[in-house]
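Quick note —
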Amino acid sequence: MKSALKQTWVLIVAVVVVTVAAGVGLGLLATGDDGEGGGEPVGSAQQQPSPTASEGGSSSASKTPSPSPTRSYPLSQPPRTIPAVRTHTPARGPGWTPDKGERVVVSDGDLADEGRLLAGELGLTYAGQQGDVRAGDVRLALNDDEGADPESYTMTVRGGRVTISGPADAGVFYGTRTLKQEVYGGGTAPEGVVRDEPAKPVRGFQLDIARKHFTADWIEDRVRELGDLKINQLGLHFSDDQGFRIESDSHPEVVSQEHLTKAQVRQIVALAASRHITVVPEIDSPGHLGAVIAAHPDLQLRNTQGVATRGAVDISDPDAAEIVDDLLNEFADLFPGDQWHLGGDEYQALVVSDPEASYPQLASAAREAFGSGASVEDLTTGWLNDRADTVRAHDKTPRAWNDGFFAGTSVKADADIQVAYWTGKEIGARLPTAYLSEGRKLINYNDEFLYYVLGEPLTFVYPTGQRIYEQWTPLVVRGTQPVPAKYDDQILGGVFAVWGDLPNSQTQAQVAAGIRMPLRAMVQKLWDPGKPELSWSQFKALADRLG
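Predicted structure written out below.
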């Protein structure tokens, strides 16, 4: 009797072990009532039915149904990404991890580039446009959400599959960046639905390649980094007193020995486009043209004593406008994006106490062009507007540094020229509200937080990610004080800038390391307007984990 009873218990235990093992191995996602309001959250899996004869099960199983083995999951936690996602609806389920042999499929051929990129990054198979559904699929799709932010997306993780959809390919791409970060290093994309979009349309990185030559490979590495962080603009300041760093056909005499070829630039631009990054070129004028002047010394501005003015062309000379327009027209096709930075800052004719007396040729040209009461500031504003006309002809939206705009002039800067606000240290400095109250759109380059100036000259210090994360917002345009919130819509976003004032102070590798956390902190503040959920130490630890 004891022997028979012992055999019965062994059989029962064996059945239980097999049943539990089968439930775990299959990852069945059924749950009961969660007691949190009745019913499962969006995205939770339902109990799987027993197989029937028509589904390949035995006839005896269909006649005598038995409960399927089940596994209960806690509600999922929000994904941890940089920048953080805006909303996540949790659900119960195992989430999704990439597995070799699984597919990335697209519902629209326009998403082929995004699909191929993601498949290559995650070790999956890109299967193109497919209508069938398989376990483990990642599906990319365009939706018909008219009027939605084109950079928005929805990502649903449910039933062992992932769907990323958006109104435009840019949003779908950002969804793939979220998925990539979630599964980085063997992680799992949590079950549920992410709905995400940026707070600001301009999230940029500006690189001074004129004063410090950066290699094409290094710039391409930054492009990949920027794309993964959902940064969507790369500014290239390639002309200054110290160098002109891109090959030129119209004026090869101005090009520095160390420079990028046009082929290299095209490759950078193409890589950036694949990451939905617009490359914003800058040929700064009428100051910061020393490299052009070195080849054309007759264009240099001189005062009444014949003393040359550093970096400044004589804007009363039509030849100066002609050579700058030659360069603007030449490079417009090389940079197909719709943005152009005209510079306009630090024209040295305007730092003297009496520009009209020091530069009578400029005063005379101003009066001739704009009337008897016109000033050198009017003439300089006219120069800016003329260069804006040049790039507008190529369907570019112009921007200029804030110290290229002047108060009290009869000639006004064109209304569509965006203000790249970087400083309040110039002569006659005006608060950001002076520009915003005119209705101008502004991009935040605050030199207190967002300027990485090599060698830390003057009063500059290398910005830290922690200071940006804890103290800066897009409303903090100048110094440390925010502008009134009523101007928020006019502030298009922010740009973190690297300047090569003392170019040998850091190597390329040191620059990459130094800007790593500031870039991540800045984009967090540009993507999500709320106070970050993570402390700085938690944010930094997340960045270190994500690589």
